[in-house]
Amino acid sequence: MDNNDLKYFSRRIANLNVHYFDPEGRTSSASEMADPVSMPRRDALQKMLEVSPIIVYKVGVMTDLTMGRFVRIRDVPPAGWYEPEDGEEVEEVEEMDKEEEEWLGVVQWMDVPFAAPGDSGSLVFAREDGIIIPLGIHVGSPTSMPNTSIFISLETFCFEAEAEGLEPHFCH
């Protein structure tokens, strides 16, 4: 890879607001609208999901553009997804150290599969009133949960990046 390849990785999304579903987030500054950790999103999303699913999209390498229903938030990975490391008890894996705002999203498939092997890493997003609302990064479709896919929230992605010594930056 060289500098000529950067054009394939640089994407600008017009009309983006990661906090669109939070009434306070609709009036945020441009830099806050692009930063998923500038204010908590989980409670606002949870309240919306209690009323109805949120239609989400993903452009996967293998599946191209797909739609699904974001139906719930999870705190722990689905059963059978992560094997305990040497010396860890299974109960400890479920009680992983995490920030209060870290979460996983569950997407129910619609008429066609939301994802296929090779789609991991794709952005999962909603779209409302011409606004793109990035929610998370697709990580897979567990066999223990047929016809569903899982994404990690952007908050979780950012906290994990920081734990690895990286500093995520968001352009507005």
SSE inventory with pairings:
Layout: H1 30-34, H2 42-51, E1 54-60, E2 64-74, H3 90-94, E3 104-109, E4 123-128, E5 131-140, E6 148-153, H4 154-163
Antiparallel strand pairs: 1-2, 1-4, 2-3, 3-6, 4-5, 5-6
Which terms would index this structure?
Thrombin, subunit H; alpha+beta; 6 strands; 172 residues; 17% helix
Summarize the structure in short.
The chain is α+β, with helices and mostly antiparallel strands and 172 residues long. It is built from 4 helices and 6 strands, in the order H-H-E-E-H-E-E-E-E-H. The two termini are 26 Å apart.
Mean pLDDT across all residues, rounded?
83
CATH architecture of the domain at 38-79 and 86-124 and 135-163: Beta Barrel
So what's the overall shape?
globular
Unreliable runs, pLDDT <50, ≥5 residues?
Answer: 6-10, 90-96
* CATH class value of the domain at 38-79 and 86-124 and 135-163: Mainly Beta
How much is the radius of gyration in Å?
A: 16 Å
Which fold name fills CATH's third level, the topology of the domain at 38-79 and 86-124 and 135-163?
Answer: Thrombin, subunit H
